[in-house]
User: Fold this.
Amino acid sequence: MKRATNMFHDANELTAAPTSVELKRVDPSLNMRRSYCMSLQLDLFGGVDLVREWGRIGCRGQSLIEHHCCEGEAVASMLALETAKRN
Assistant:
């Protein structure tokens, strides 16, 4: 797992840490090489987007953007997804 430090510096920008999560699962016996990444990004309207990307390592994957009205809601969603992916 790789967690980035807070990349926002302005007081009006995100203040929560972490702002991104990267999970990888590699199991050669099952021919499994998966990646799952999440990051928080500010949108133009004062909300926060949770950007999720997943797929086989080295291949084009899929992505999904979840719009949240506040930072706390986006962070809670990201942490819940991280917990679910680890179990």
Summary: The beta strands are 2-3, 20-27, 32-42, 48-56, 62-68.
